[in-house]
Structures are given as C-alpha cells and as structure tokens.
Amino acid sequence: MVSIAYSAKMFFVKALGILFKMDKPAATYIYNLFLVNIILGLLLLPLLILISYVGHQYVPYLVLASVLLAIIMFGYRTVKTVQIWIGLPEFSFYYLILYLCAFEILPIMIIARLASVI
Fold first, then answer.
1. Predicted local distance difference test score (pLDDT) of residue 93
2. Residues 76, 78, 84, 90: is their CA dihedral positive or negative?
3. Given a cut of 80, is residue 35 above it in pLDDT?
4. 6 close to 38: Cβ distance less than 8 angstroms
5. Where would I find the H helices in the chain?
6. What's the whole-number average pLDDT of the chain?
7. How far apart, in whole angstroms, are the C-alpha atoms of residue 50 and residue 69?
C-alpha cells in the first residue's frame, strides 16, 4: 500500500508539474522526497536491528526513538518543500497550505486512522 501511495503521489506531482509548466520545482521536490526517505531508511535500519535483538525492556525506547526520528525527518522534508514553494516567482500561501494539507498531512492522517483500526 505504501508503494502504491508513493507511486500515485509521484505521478500526480509530476503530472501537475508538467500541466502547470513547473517541471523543475516538481523534480526538485521528488528528489528531496526520495533523498529524505532513503536517509530515514538508513537511519532506522540500525534501530530495527536493535529492536530485533535487544531485551524486551528496551523495545519501547527504541520504538519511541524511531518515531521521533521519523517525525524529525518529516519536519525537515516539510521545511524543504516550503523552501521550494517560496522560491517560485508566482508563490501563493493559499496554494502552499492547500498542498501541505492534501499531499503531506492527509496521507499521514489516513495511515494513522488505518493503523488504529487494525
């Protein structure tokens, strides 16, 4: 599901970039998104290995550290996204807020909702 969601997101970002003649900002955003995800994966891998092999008393702390790391990287990605938007000549705060709600915050809320159901 995550793969399908990211593929759809990349398709829409690329399509909107082509449609509105903003190929370079769309490509920069996609690059930053993949870069942050790869770095996050590399940083979470040692924590995942530790969770697998340490005693059960340390697992909650490692999970908390993993979640905090993911939140920090998400915040960094959001800041980079805002920097890309502000750098555009036809910058609009309305469209920035609309984008952040539709493509950044809403998927996290949906995932949290699905995780709470399961």
1. 81
2. negative
3. yes
4. no
5. 2-19, 23-53, 59-86, 93-99, 106-117
6. 88
7. 15
